[in-house]
Design brief:
Blueprint (H helix, E strand, L loop, with lengths): L5 H25 L4 H4 L14 H9 L2 H32 L5 H11 L8 H9 L23 H4 L6 H11 L4 H9 L4 H12 L1 H16 L3 H9 L6 H11 L2 H37 L4
Family: Belongs to the binding-protein-dependent transport system permease family.
Membrane topology: Multi-pass membrane protein
Subcellular location: Cell membrane
Length: 290
């Protein structure tokens, strides 16, 4: 049946799109404004002139090379780890039969119900007192920050994702068992079945998970800020931009912060732009039915 008022649906979508894009436009256009213009009582969205002075000042104030390097290493490393662990676990929990399989999956689902900040202090304690890391002894004492001295501290806590395992399991469930059994009859090993059959079929789901994970890690702030308090050489872009806002006069840094945020959004925008087709396919095909 055709809707009686199709224009109303289009109107709602259009209004929602405008509401979502306005803060982004405010950030981009604000990055070209001066302190007087951005703090003026007479608000206007467009700047009087497009001046790139704020971008030059951000690069001068912040060590953008170090921030970008740390953010890219962390985001890419965590994404690769999550894709690997989620696909392997999803395959094992779906197509392999072993005692306790369903119990393990239920336990993974339970971990998704806890808020992430609940594990901040335990994870930080583990990182600081990790045995034989950063000068620690076998009992995790006597060192200088433990794993926090290495960029591994920004990667390790996020290397496994309960959501990633759930997503890949739901996608792999749609692969016919007969296809895998035919490969086993032909003499294919489990690794070959996984690598040459399962992984190519699950490409849309893998790309979807990669986008979610990359964006999440690129914007990660709280954990990166904790590690920054131990080792300031491990600062990422969100931490650097926040420190810029905290150390200078807020009335003078609003435009600088907008410029820094605009710069930080560019890699995420490019990643999503390149992979959006696979993202849509993955969301449509994954499903959540048992």
């Amino acid at each position: 049946m055709k809707p009686r008022f199709p224009w109303f649906s289009y109107l709602v979508v259009a209004l929602g799109s405008i509401m979502m894009i306005l803060p982004f436009l405010e950030m981009v256009f604000g990055s070209f404004k001066g302190p007087d213009e951005i703090n003026s009582a007479d608000y206007q969205l467009l700047p009087n002139s497009f001046d790139f002075h704020n971008y030059a000042e951000v690069f001068e104030t912040l060590n953008m090379g170090l921030l970008f390097k740390n953010s890219i290493i962390v985001a890419v490393s965590v994404t690769v780890c999550v894709l690997l662990t989620s696909t392997l676990a999803g395959y094992a929990l779906t197509k392999l039969h072993f005692p306790g399989r369903d119990t393990i999956f239920k336990f993974i689902l339970v971990t998704m119900m806890f808020p992430a900040f609940l594990f901040l202090i335990p994870n930080f304690y583990i990182i600081i007192h990790f045995p034989l890391a950063g000068g620690n002894d076998l009992f995790g004492e006597g060192g200088n920050g433990g794993l926090a001295a290495s960029i591994v501290s920004l990667i390790l806590p996020f290397a496994v994702s309960g959501f990633g395992i759930f997503l890949m399991r739901q996608f792999i469930m749609n692969i016919p068992d007969a296809l895998l059994e035919a490969a086993r009859i032909d003499g294919a090993s489990e690794f070959r079945i996984f690598w040459q059959i399962v992984v190519p079929i699950t490409t849309p789901a893998l790309v979807t998970l990669a986008i979610f994970t990359f964006i999440s890690q690129w914007n990660e702030f709280i954990w990166a800020m904790l590690i920054f308090t131990v080792n300031d050489q491990l600062a990422t872009l969100p931490v650097g931009i926040q420190m810029l806002q905290m150390t200078l006069d807020p009335t003078l840094t609003r435009a600088l912060v907008s410029a820094g945020l605009t710069i930080s959004v560019v890699p995420v925008f490019l990643v999503f732009l390149c992979l959006q087709r696979y993202y849509i396919n993955g969301m449509v095909m994954s499903g959540v039915k048992e």
